[in-house]
Specification:
711 residues; eight-stranded antiparallel β-sheet; five-stranded antiparallel β-sheet; 24 helices; 44% helix
């Protein structure tokens, strides 16, 4: 034990020494005039940012952060993120277009990436993570030194240049040299960064955010600024709204969330008693509910782990946040930098990354074994984001896309090895934020009501739908009006209909709220066009998106977001297919939550509803993995005692022969709203047709209750 303490003490001393040396050198940058005007301006900006991070570090360490007034905290918080806010982004080096325009095509992308990476020092300063600060400061100095050397190697001295009247001319370094610096930065630090990422997932002692949730006076909204996340009126008003709620209502929200998690284990025939941790994910402002949820989880033997959404090259940046997060200061920034790995990605780096992920899981294998999976609180109602496609932003090449797919597949298999899919579960619930509109509080109350609907009522109605579906060999779905959907979905054969079923009767467990029946279709003879006039997927808007299926696989696709067909196809391949050449139809479901649909229509928020609720407001189709991914061998039963046998398709079945071809590590739901649905009918073994939905209304006997919401 003493030896471990000494090693840790030595490591801390070394990091402090590295920090002191780096910050001293960075302070000198603004006074040096060697690199030429445009590069000097860039490095002065970078130095100023790093020095502001040192200031943030000291503010947190000294305790001054928690002594600030609300006004002081707001000014301090805005200053951290000011440079990438939309009103300043056009003139920020974080914007690849601006960086390339100022610094040239050869190095502009790389220097924009450098600034984006430096910006991940913000959470490091608040978490007092000296190592994360140091490695980024040293990266800046290494790039700066390369530029200095390029300048000094110029045959004309600075004095001669000045005499010639050309002082301030830029002398750029070899782009390949900079790329090598970035490459080795990523390669060298993947190991400690992977260790930290896995530790935050499975180790409750990594409790930076948990301490804020459990120990703060939540009536004093200053606590929102202690995370280091960007804070806006959304987070402040959300927290204030929850503070005004009764303890009973907070308990109802939290209990629905935690019970959904517990029931998910029970319905999946999985033993929750062998688990010790649950990963809690949420948006700032919901701490009062999360505190109650953490308590609930403790009552069933689970400690909460809470990690921050990704902010750097190692964790990955995305518009769609995964972890805990505050307001997004600029979604375009995240979109522009989501493929920065293109600067360095090659086969060796993929192997290095996988080696580091395995090493991290091996280091924490005991903790991983007892980890139960995520409990997610999503938000919706933010202003819709329509991204701009920028030529200057990094983009994965076709070869790199394949490498990215390979990494995601193998990393997923590694996680499943250490946190087995057949032993873990999850739950997801969603609530609106004030951006949703002037009727925010009324909408919030209605969403609480939707999230807590009588699951027994829906269970009975959905069972009637399943009983009819189980008579079929296929389901035919057709759109109406402008919707061009014409799709046939093949179903598995039930060898023992008295004891088997194709569809899961989904009530309020893993996917809250209630309201769907779903299956994994047979791919063979699943053919046709899926089309939706407008949909938001992972916070991105898609206009007139269509996918063509042959034998259950996507063979063609398009949308109308951009003027160019090429741009439209790339948009779908990047954000729906996730760089795969094709994906299978992993899920077919019928949403039954007409209450949610009518609520969305009443408030005019259809375009803001999260997929979690939207998927319950019509038939939906998921491309990618099935809902039973990595848990196909676990026997699962509906409430009527019938076993669900449709957990596989022809692709996922390949796990028995070549697991690398069985999974895609993605699952994207696309819903046809009731008003775009012409007909949904079962094709029976006898060749008959049984209609379940006609012109957007349930016409199957026993489903009349679902149409009452439309009245």
């Amino acid at each position: 034990m003493e030896d471990i303490y000494i090693v840790e003490e030595d490591r801390n001393d070394l990091e402090e020494e590295r920090f002191a040396l780096a910050i001293e050198r960075i302070r000198e940058i603004p006074d040096e005039k060697v690199c030429g005007e445009s590069l000097q301006k860039y490095f002065c900006t970078m130095a100023a940012f790093v020095l502001s991070m040192e200031e943030a570090w000291n503010v947190v360490k000294s305790g001054r952060l928690r002594q600030m007034t609300m006004d002081e905290l707001q000014v301090f918080n805005r200053k951290l993120y000011e440079d990438i806010l939309p009103e300043h982004y056009d003139a920020s080096y974080a914007n690849p277009e601006y960086a390339v325009d100022c610094l040239g095509e050869s190095i502009g992308q790389m220097l924009s990436f450098l600034y984006a990476e430096l910006r991940s020092m913000i959470p490091a300063a608040f978490e007092q993570n000296r190592f994360a600060m140091v490695i980024r400061m040293e990266l800046l100095l290494e790039i700066y030194q390369a530029c200095l050397c390029a300048a000094q190697a110029d045959s004309v001295s600075a004095e001669e240049t000045a005499q010639a009247g050309t002082a301030g001319a830029d002398r750029f370094p070899d782009p390949e040299e900079l790329k090598q610096i970035l490459y080795w930065y990523v390669s060298d630090y993947y190991e400690p960064e992977s260790n930290e990422k896995i530790a935050q997932l499975v180790c409750p002692e990594k409790d930076f955010a948990l301490r804020i949730v459990k120990d703060s006076d939540l009536t004093d909204l200053r606590y929102l600024y202690y995370y280091g996340e960007y804070v806006t009126e959304n987070e402040l008003r959300t927290a204030a709204h929850l503070n005004r709620m009764s303890e009973e209502k907070i308990a109802l929200m939290a209990d629905t969330y935690t019970e959904g998690y517990r029931i998910g284990f029970a319905m999946g025939n999985k033993d929750i008693s062998i688990k010790k941790t649950v990963n809690v994910r949420y948006c700032l402002g919901f701490e009062r509910m999360i505190r109650r949820a953490v308590h609930n989880f403790e009552q069933i033997g689970l400690q909460s782990t809470i990690y921050r959404s990704g902010t750097n090259i190692f964790q990955g940046r995305s518009v769609n946040k995964n972890g805990y997060f505050g307001a997004n200061p600029n979604k375009q920034f995240d979109y522009d930098h989501r493929e920065d790995l293109a600067l360095v990605l090659d086969k060796l780096l993929v192997e290095r990354r996988l080696e580091c992920v395995r090493g991290a899981f091996e280091q924490y294998k005991e903790q991983a074994k007892v980890h139960g999976g995520p409990a997610v609180l999503e938000i919706f109602g933010e202003k819709p984001f329509v991204p701009q496609t920028k030529a200057a932003a990094c983009r994965l090449s076709e070869k790199q896309q394949k490498l990215s797919v390979e990494y995601a597949s193998k990393a997923g298999m590694l996680q499943n090895e250490y946190i087995p899919g057949e032993e873990r579960s999850f739950t997801i619930i969603a609530f609106p934020v004030p951006d949703i509109g002037a009727q925010y509080e009324e909408i919030f109350d209605d969403i609480v009501r939707i999230n807590t609907l009588d699951y027994k009522l829906y269970q009975g109605i959905q069972q009637k739908i399943i009983d009819v579906l189980d008579q079929g060999v296929a389901v035919a779905v057709k759109g109406c009006g402008a919707n061009r959907t014409d799709l046939k979905i093949s179903l598995h054969e039930l060898k023992n209909p008295d004891r088997e079923t194709n569809f899961e009767n989904c009530v309020a467990d893993v996917n809250i709220p209630v309201g769907e029946v779903f299956t994994s279709p047979v791919l063979a003879a699943t053919d046709g066009i899926l089309h939706v006039t407008r949909v938001f997927l992972n916070e991105l808007e898609f206009k007139d998106i269509w996918l063509k299926f042959e034998d259950g696989m996507i063979v063609d696709y398009g949308c109308a977001n951009f003027l160019s067909e090429e741009e439209n196809r790339k948009y779908i391949k990047d954000n729906v297919l996730f760089h795969h050449d094709t994906l299978p139809l992993g899920e077919f479901a019928i949403g039954t939550n007409t209450t949610a649909y009518v609520t969305a229509r009443r408030y005019g928020i259809e375009d803001k509803m999260p997929i979690l609720i939207a998927e319950k407001t019509g038939p939906h189709f998921a491309v990618g993995d099935t809902c039973y991914s990595h848990a196909e061998n676990v026997r699962v039963y509906n409430q009527d005692g019938k076993e669900i046998i449709a957990k596989d398709n022809e692709v996922s079945a390949l796990r028995d022969t070549d697991v690398s071809k069985a999974y895609f590590q993605c699952h994207t739901d696309i819903t046809i709203p009731y008003d775009e649905l012409g007909e949904l009918a079962v094709q029976t073994h006898d060749g008959d047709k049984i209609v379940i939905i006609q012109d957007g209304r349930f016409v199957l006997e026993g489903c009349e209750e679902l149409n009452k919401a439309f009245l």
